[in-house]
């Protein structure tokens, strides 16, 4: 007699992706080196992202050691960091770590689309696709490992670059989780590292330039990635 074995329960991340697949009704679009899921409307995108945020609230992907490395990079390059933005920070760990490593004089704000953003220090509820006039031209850096949640990457990156002061840096983590094969209805944007650099160079060359990436794959076993670095020049 064949045994009736039920499937093992899904973990929080996989369950959130499965729930998003059922709710999103999104269409997958593939181009060379890039995948993007398109939602039927903005409200669907927003509801899927809020639900995913709450489902994965206790999951922390970025490691403190990575933020320490990036803080050291920023201080070495910019000397003084007074204001920074971290997009898609869920429970606020990234901005807390940046504040710790950059010193008391640094104001670091995290953004999150979910309505529970107010529960976490230095976090504001904000859709990272949107321009914020209060931040325009003021940030020494903008950081994110959550850019793969963008439904309109050009719009999101444009808003982030707008927030930078001239000479400010946009830092985008890129690892296996941001590759095209990893894209899904909850993380709708996947792109190769090379294509991401090309994407930024093609669309934002009038306001900035790519710098050498920060490669942590051999120096940080906790969190292996390459960081795309874009400098605002105008």
Whole-number count of domains: 1
Strand order of the largest sheet: 5-4-3-6-7-10-9
Radius of gyration: 18 Å
- β-strand amount: 25-35%
Describe the overall structure.
With 234 residues, the chain is α/β, with parallel strands linked by helices. The chain has one domain (12-232): 3-Layer(aba) Sandwich (Rossmann fold). Helices cover 32% and strands 25% of the residues. It has 6 helices and 10 strands; from the N terminus they run αββααβαβββαββαββ. The strands form 2 sheets. Strands 5-4-3-6-7-10-9 form a 7-stranded mixed beta sheet, sandwiched between helices. The chain has a 3-stranded antiparallel beta sheet with strand order 1-2-8. The chain is globular, with a radius of gyration of 18 Å.
List the topology elements:
Blueprint: H1 12-24, E1 27-31, E2 34-38, H2 42-55, H3 64-78, E3 83-87, H4 93-102, E4 107-112, E5 123-125, E6 139-144, H5 153-163, E7 164-174, E8 189-191, H6 193-204, E9 208-215, E10 226-232
Parallel strand pairs: 3-4, 3-6, 4-5, 6-7
Antiparallel strand pairs: 1-2, 2-8, 7-10, 9-10
């Amino acid at each position: 007699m064949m045994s009736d074995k039920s499937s093992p329960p899904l973990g929080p991340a996989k369950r959130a992706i499965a729930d998003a697949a059922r709710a999103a009704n999104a269409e997958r679009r593939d181009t060379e080196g890039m995948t993007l899921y398109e939602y039927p409307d903005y409200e669907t995108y927003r509801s899927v992202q809020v639900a995913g945020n709450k489902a994965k609230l206790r999951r922390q992907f970025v490691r403190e050691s990575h933020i320490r490395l990036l803080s050291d990079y920023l201080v070495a390059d910019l000397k003084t960091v007074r204001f920074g933005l971290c997009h898609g920070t869920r429970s606020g760990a990234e901005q807390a770590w940046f504040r710790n490593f950059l010193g008391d004089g640094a104001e670091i704000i995290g953004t999150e689309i979910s309505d529970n953003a107010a529960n976490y220090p230095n976090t504001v509820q904000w859709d990272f696709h949107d321009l914020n006039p209060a931040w325009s031209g003021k940030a020494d850096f903008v950081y994110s490992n959550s850019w793969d949640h963008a439904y309109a990457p050009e719009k999101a990156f444009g808003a982030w670059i707008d927030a930078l002061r001239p000479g400010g840096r946009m830092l985008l983590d890129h690892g296996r989780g941001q590759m095209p094969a990893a894209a899904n209805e909850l993380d709708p944007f996947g792109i190769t590292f090379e294509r991401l650099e090309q994407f930024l160079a093609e669309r934002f060359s009038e306001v900035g330039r790519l710098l050498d990436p920060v490669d942590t794959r051999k120096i940080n076993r906790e969190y292996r990635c390459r960081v795309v670095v874009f400098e605002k020049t105008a």
